[in-house]
Amino acid sequence: MEPKEILTLKEITKSYGEMRALSPLSLRIKQGESVALIGPSGAGKTTLLNIFASVIQADAGEFEISGKPAHRYTSAKQLARKVGMIRQQFDLVRPLPVIHNVLAGRLGEWGFFKSLVSFIFPQEKDVAARALERVGLADKIYEKTANLSGGEQQRVALARLLVQHPEIILADEPVSSLDPARAEDVLAMLVNLANEENQTLVASLHSVELAKKYFTRLIALREGTVYFDLPVEEVTDESLSELYDLVEMKDNDAKAAVFS
Amino acid sequence: MMRKLLYFHKKNVLTLFLVLVFILSLFSVNWGPELLHAGGLNALQEMVAALFHPDLSPYILQLALIASVRTLAYAVTGMSIAVLIALIFGVLASGLLSSGRWNRLLSMSGFRGLLGFMRAIHELVWAWLFVVAFGLTPYAAIFAIAIHYGGILGRIFADMLNDVPPEPIQALKASGASRFQLLLYGYFPAAAADILSYVMYRFECAIRSSAIMSFVGLGGLGYQIHLSLTDLKYDQVWTFLLFLIALVVLVDLWSQFLRKRMVA
After folding, report:
1. Which end of chain A is more exposed for a tag (fewer CB within 10 A), N or C?
2. Do B145 and B85 form a contact (C-beta atoms < 8 A)?
3. CA distance linking residue A33 with residue A3, whole number of Å
4. What is the average pLDDT across B44-67?
């Protein structure tokens, strides 16, 4: 059976004042795909991910999640089951112990009373423990998050995603603040976990090497629209150097880069 | 050009102006022998001398100890109520719980206004008002501290909650957290260290305030200082003042200890 289409964009546009972040952009992503978004700064990668996450709304065009218009996912809980997001390491609540940051992935499912009790006596401890074990941090469960290293914090964020278990994982430069070795570790882990659960993964990345190594489909953005959209084995060095070729970029892009 | 130059030097111009005003003001002082009233210098000397010989007789020490405990009790009780008020009003004044722009604006301006009213009136004035209402009972002092400090703390709490970095909050929202959950798992933990250290600082202020307030006749260190001062017993005054200093220093040490634990 052909996998279902899970993310659909039709003729999406988005502007910030005078700045065009996305000019008409259309995309289809199927369930279980691992997609890397690449392209120069200011190409619209973060804007696109924020639209996927419903953090911002497009100015025009249609956006569907699993064939249903995104604005019809009205409750935070519904949306959290569909879409989860991981960014750079600063999206954890650093003064809290690791276990609370992991269990935050369950907040959408919990009522207020349960989350209040859990704040003092952590609930569903085994869920958190299992997730932390899968990211190799079982021994840090009661540690204060701020005391962990950058790579470890990013793995805590992964554990939170595991606990939230959304159908779609969005990752905005998930490893850009880590050193190269840590970056590969965390990215490999992210891709593996998503594949194991047949989750759809869309990640924006600085590094084309990492994108080619770990993802099956590369979508290159430039000037707010799709520059190429190819399976990884069809991406050529020429197309990549053209994508990042600054000499050919118009003046507009220099301005666009400021907004990235 | 001239305007730009003036703009560039506006700080210097203002400084110069203020210095001139100060110099002029010296001329309006009556530099005669009447500047200190007769015997004033003598009294000052006695006060300084008494600093080195505070009255350490058992009776005065016992009195000072009881007064200190009473002062501390007013401050602790008043601050506890103040923190409670501040947490509730502060959250409402931060507008984090309200949905929609108008609700938010209404909640923010309404509760910020209320907090402003509470702290605009000095705790001493509140104490007087309450003494009129309740008579000379500890409640007057406690409520005076609770209301004035509740107003200060609530406003600062609201500001601190509004200044929490947005990324972790966004992430919690994305995992489906409701407003109350955001408050519990996002805003409060992120602001907790700042809130605690500010409460401790204000607690120190509340002790001083509680001492002063007892001048009204509510008992405590201020009352004892007042009595000794009317008797011109400077050695006793210093004993009580030393107790007050000790209280403040102890609270400061405690707050440093707490903060170290929070940060580690």
Report:
1. N
2. no
3. 9
4. 88
Distances (CA, A) of A69 to A29, A61, A63, A210, B263: 15, 11, 6, 32, 45
Choose, out of A56, A87, A107, the residue to mutate when testing the contact with B (most B CBs < 10 Å): A107
- DSSP string of B52-96? HS----HHHHHHHHHHHHHHHHHHHHHHHHHHHHHHHHHHHHHT-
Write the CB contacts of B175 (distance below 8 Å, at least 6 apart in sequence): A80, A84, A104, A105, A106, A107, A108, A160, A164
CB atoms within 10 A of CB A41: 13
Residue A255 has pLDDT above 80, yes or no: no
Band (pLDDT 50/70/90 cuts) for residue A247 is very low
Taking CB atoms and an 8 Å cutoff, what residues of chain A touch B168? Answer: 90-94
The DSSP element (H or E) to which A67 belongs, if any, is none
Which of A91, A118, A167 is most worth mutating to test chain B (most B CB atoms within 10 A of its CB)? A91
Collect all residues with Cβ–Cβ distance below 8 Å to B216 and sequence separation of at least 6: B124, B127, B128, B131, B136, B140, B141
Please tell me what DSSP assigns to residue B184: I
Contact B193 A94 (CB under 8 A): no
Residue B39 identity? G
Which of B177, B184, B193 is nearest residue A95 as measured by Cβ atoms?
A: B193
Q: Could B172 and A160 be called an inter-chain contact, meaning their C-beta atoms sit closer than 8 Å?
A: no
Cβ neighbors of B181 (< 8 A, separation 6 or more) are: A107, A110, A112, A115, B172
Residues of A in contact with B181 (CB under 8 A): 107, 110, 112, 115
Complex ipTM, two decimals?
Answer: 0.78
Amino acid A44: pLDDT? 86
Residues of chain A contacting B189 with CB distance shorter than 8 Å: 93, 95-96, 100
Is there a contact between A80 and B175 if contact means CB atoms under 8 Å apart? yes
